[in-house]
Model the fold of this input.
Amino acid sequence: MGEPDLTADYLIVGSGAVGMAFADVLLTETDATMIIVDRYQKPGGHWNVAYPFVTLHQPSAYYGVSSRELSKGRKDEVGLNKGLGDLASGDEVMAYYDTVMRHQFLPSGRVQYFPMSDYKGEGRFVSMASGKERRVSAKKYVDATFLKTTVPSTHTPNFKIEDDVRFMPLNDLPRVERAPAGYVIVGAGKTGIDACLWLLENGVEPDMIQWIMPRDAWLLDRANTQSTEEFFENAMGAQAGQMEAIAQAESIEDMFDRLEACGYFVRIDTDVRPSMFHGATISTLELELLRRLKPNIVRMGRVQRIEPDRIVLDDGEIPTSPDHIHVDCSARAISNDEIKPIFDGDTITPQMVRSYQPVFSAAFIAHVEAAYSD
Ligand SMILES: Cc1cc2nc3c(=O)[nH]c(=O)nc-3n(C[C@H](O)[C@H](O)[C@H](O)COP(=O)(O)OP(=O)(O)OC[C@H]3O[C@@H](n4cnc5c(N)ncnc54)[C@H](O)[C@@H]3O)c2cc1C
Done:
């Protein structure tokens, strides 16, 4: 154990959206110095390895750091988000965080940034490029890795895939050069939705797509998540509707019925009762397009294994072929359900203190850190 060769007020591990939002508020509201460490080569966290057609699913106005607007302040005029606030693409999110780091954080002289660096604990991190170890002495440690966002390109599916099966994360879909016999989308969260929409938008007929949906999801109507005055009635109406539904509900089931009746929740298939809710938002146009896939939804539980000629699921099996492309959308964005104290001695662990707002929550927690002594 060598002596520390780096010192700062804060050691922040993770330069994803959470670490960046936290550091930004400290920069604006304090004189603190900080060291930011991350395994990726650029700030932005999971957006480094996102699929080429990814976008935010909430308006850009809610994302990024407090001191710099990510939103272009305009509505989409074309496409499936037409009429609603702009959704930054993955490339835009990456370029944005690069600008924040290179033109704000580093020129401040108060931030030292160590990309390509694996944090090992106890103030120690190792450069993945050079192998060099550094030791940090900091007054506070900020764990901005805690939400454990997983994405298809970095996660290992929890089912078996036999040889001769064409299987890919949705990142590789744009590289398909020859139409397969069909597409099988595994997973029904935000990435599964994105994969289906991308195929449909690229002219793939619905009967070429099978959608393995272990559970149906309640979804949020994106029109209710807009930040502009034009959508005041949607946004505030949905909040009021939510409170009324919760107050008047006589059971959990009744609450979900009421939340749907007031327009807070929507679902793809109104004949099937959803049993999951991960906070994904959807536009009316996206919902209409996805409903074209209703006859092709496979509800037989989770995939156990994919063989060249069949897919074995918990509750049955369906045929497939080596000419089918199986697309992995089974990663679960925020995968950590654990809750721990945010402020715990010298350690700060940003978590969500506002529903569906990891980034706002991180900025808010940093403000509390900056403004209150205990
Ligand atoms: C496709 C998609 C779309 C999304 N859209 C939205 C949206 O519109 N709005 C919204 O609010 N949320 C959205 N989310 C949710 C997501 O949780 C947030 O986008 C947010 O990026 C989470 O940030 P994070 O910093 O917690 O995680 P990450 O982006 O995963 O960042 C964590 C960082 O920690 C680093 N790290 C981990 N361990 C170590 C270690 N030992 N040493 C060094 N570095 C380490 C990682 O390299 C990574 O860069 C979306 C998620 C996905 C997958």
